[in-house]
Design a protein that fits this description.
This protein is mostly helical. The chain folds into two domains: about 50 residues, Arc Repressor Mutant, subunit A (Orthogonal Bundle); about 130 residues. It has nine helices and no strands. Helix 1 packs across helix 6, helix 4 packs across helix 6 and helix 5 crosses helix 6.
Length: about 190
């Protein structure tokens, strides 16, 4: 009978996520992961060719966790859908500090748009359908709103500010309305 693996791909991924949450991405290496899993590095390298391969899978897992935060606000609250997406992003920043830093606070050399988001297509659809923006205006609007939301999320992530969800909603709503006035005025001028 073949020996059952004690350390499988799922356990390695869980251990790596735990390290990123507590020590950040810089704390993740084969030795620290082996220590977290109470094993040698051999099971890690038998499942992953390299730590870079593991980090790619971690990125996908972190994006899934981020989507769950957004889906919570989209499906479990009565907030408008665009606000719900922003609140989900901020929830991810507050509750999954290390994962947020891994996805959104690392240098993005040659990665294109700084604000690449796994929810980008859904966000553009919301802006086009619900707020009657053109696809180009929706992209530009979301980039500008993302800069504001990103700053707020980062400040909350590193505990630079402490504000309630109600205050976050007020700040995002004010920024949303201000930008919408600008974009609607521009649309009327065309």
């Amino acid at each position: 009978m073949p020996k059952v693996k004690r350390i499988n791909r799922e356990k390695i991924l869980e251990g790596a996520l735990s390290i990123i949450q507590t020590k950040g991405i810089s704390g993740l290496n084969a030795r620290s992961l082996a220590c977290e899993l109470n094993c040698s590095t051999q099971p890690i390298y038998s499942e992953y060719k390299s730590m870079d391969d593991l980090k790619e899978e971690l990125k996908k897992e972190a994006e899934i966790i981020y989507k769950r935060c957004v889906n919570y606000y989209l499906n479990e609250t009565s907030y408008a859908s665009y606000l719900a997406v922003g609140l989900g992003f901020i929830k991810f920043a507050k509750e999954h500090k290390g994962l947020f830093q891994y996805l959104y606070m690392q240098p993005q050399e040659n990665k294109g748009n700084l604000f690449e988001d796994v929810n980008e297509k859904e966000i553009q659809t919301i802006l086009v359908e619900n707020y009657k923006l053109s696809i180009n205006d929706a992209k530009n609007y979301h980039t500008e709103m993302s800069i504001y939301t990103y700053g707020l999320a980062c400040a909350l992530n590193v505990n630079h500010i402490q504000i309630s969800e109600e205050e976050i909603v007020e700040h995002l709503t004010t920024q949303f309305k201000a930008l919408m006035l600008i974009y609607r005025n521009e649309e009327e001028k065309k």
